[in-house]
Write a structure and sequence with these properties.
alpha/beta; Adenylosuccinate Synthetase, subunit A, domain 2; Adenylosuccinate Synthetase, Chain A, domain 3; 10-stranded mixed sheet; 4-stranded mixed sheet; 13 helices; binds guanosine-5'-diphosphate; binds 6-O-phosphoryl inosine monophosphate; binds magnesium ion
Length: 423
């Protein structure tokens, strides 16, 4: 039994949802500890596609307990809608398999308006956020003016607290010439969501402590990816939470020494959605993948930017997260290429660089240096065993793992649960 933190080791959308679903065959508890409904984790089970935004991907496995931890920013209306959406597909969501932390901060309607307004005012310098209100909600948390899930449960005081926050944020919106919110118009939906969520709300820290003591197996489901981390990512083109392994501890209340392993999830190539530097971005591979109908965002539907595998980035992700093992997804995306490039290091103004510079203008100025590996020109999506993979595919996977400094553990050759090779 081991407690594992699963993190995205690139720019998000690495296939975390699929790997979580695969691993919940044994894990008993799945915890989301950061992010909000900016996340979109796709899981395909029995031919049905589910896109999870706030609810941990473990919800699809009967008997798995899912926890939305204190570090998440929770849009109460969105999570209530997500619960109903799952139920309409025949998935049971009850207080027996979903718990929501009373200390999680709320994403409220003014956060979404502020997110949109800030993006609009940035013009060409926009971040390309998901417009789910994530940045403003975390901003309020850090500024100590946020409202939390526990506040939502106290009907009368919640109305008063919300009224104060609406008035303050309306002033901010008015200063930009934007219309504000009317309390009476937003309150009923929030109150309805509060009642729908009430049975799920608990002190999840205490629950997780007891689960750790009882030696239950816990999986921490990272959202976003390492280079979207507020501290370690390509700031300011990042999200507003710690997407890296440390965030799993602060965002759940489970202490670091109770963690046994960190699993990094990567794609066999690289994608990024939203703005910001992306050294190995490549039009040819973007066109190839988009032409296959792949790499469109699961939350916003935007086409993802695509590029070659960047070992400089993943090596750095290995350091920050302490990645022990790697799960490589979307190997099948490269099946039709005769040669595949892999970036081993960058050059910045004539000098070799082995780790990504933290300044985004420097990162944008980095020129990737590639090696070329032979492709395998064979469909891999029906392969289930390591030995059955074409030799060049095995060589490619071993090479990107060794360049990244971590042990290869899982290779994924399709979006379905069965399309997974365990090494
Ligand atoms: P997440 O946010 O990290 O969970 O990733 P997303 O769900 O946003 O994006 C990953 C996409 O790749 C989804 O459409 C998955 O269904 C899909 N996917 C995951 N693993 C594989 C794979 O090995 N092969 C293929 N073809 N698709 C995959
Ligand atoms: P999952 O969990 C990929 C990106 C946005 C934008 C930046 C900031 O599915 O991997 P935000 O709305 O968070 O303020 O946007 O972060 N972003 C993601 N990109 N996958 C995600 O989640 C993302 N969540 C946010 O596109 O560039
Ligand atoms: Mg995603």
């Amino acid at each position: 039994m081991s407690n594992t933190i699963l993190v995205g080791a690139q720019w998000g959308d690495e296939g975390k949802g699929k790997i979580i679903d695969f691993l919940t065959e044994t894990a008993q508890i799945v915890v989301r500890s950061q992010g909000g409904n900016n996340a979109g984790h796709t899981v395909i089970v029995g031919g049905t596609k589910y896109v999870l935004h706030l609810i941990p991907s473990g919800i699809l496995r009967p008997g798995t307990l899912c926890v939305i931890g204190n570090g998440v920013v929770l849009d109460p209306i969105a999570v209530a809608v997500e619960i109903e959406g799952l139920r309409s597909k025949g998935i049971q969501v009850t207080p027996q398999n979903l718990m929501i932390s009373d200390a999680a901060h709320l994403v409220l309607p003014y956060h979404r308006l502020l997110d949109e307004a800030r993006e609009a005012s940035r013009g060409a310098g926009k971040i390309g956020t998901t417009k789910r209100g994530i940045g403003p909600a975390y901003g309020d948390k850090i500024a100590r003016v946020g409202l939390r899930v526990a506040d939502l449960l106290h009907t009368e005081s919640f109305e008063q607290k919300l009224a104060t926050r609406v008035a303050e944020n309306n002033a901010v919106l008015a200063a930009q010439g934007l219309p504000g919110l009317v309390l009476a118009e937003i309150l009923p939906a929030l109150q309805a969501a509060a009642e729908a969520l009430r049975p799920f709300i608990a002190n999840t820290v205490v629950y997780l402590h007891e689960a750790v003591e009882a030696k239950k197996e816990i999986l921490f489901e990272g959202a976003q990816g390492t280079f979207l981390d507020i501290d370690h990512g390509t700031y300011p083109y990042v999200t507003s939470s710690n997407t890296t392994a440390g965030g799993a501890c602060t965002g759940s209340g489970v202490p670091p020494h109770k963690i046994d392993k960190v699993l990094g999830v990567i794609k066999a190539y690289t994608t990024r959605v939203g703005e910001g530097p992306f050294p190995t971005e490549n039009e040819g591979i973007s066109d190839l993948l988009h032409g296959m109908g792949r790499e469109f965002g699961s939350t916003t539907g935007r086409a993802r930017r695509c590029g070659w595998f960047d070992a400089v980035a993943v090596r750095y992700a290995g350091i920050i997260n302490g990645i022990d093992e790697l799960a490589v997804t979307n190997l099948d995306g490269l099946d039709t290429l005769a040669t595949i490039k892999v970036c081993t290091h960058y050059e910045l103004r004539g000098k070799r660089v082995d780790y990504p510079p933290m300044d985004y203008t420097d990162l944008a100025a980095c020129v990737p240096v590639y090696i070329e590996l032979p492709g395998w020109l064979t469909p891999t999506d029906a392969i289930r065993e390591w030995k059955a993979l074409p030799e060049n595919a095995r060589h490619y996977l071993e090479k990107i793992a060794s360049l990244s400094g971590a042990k290869l553990k899982i290779a994924s050759v399709g979006p379905n649960r069965e399309q997974t090779i365990l090494l």
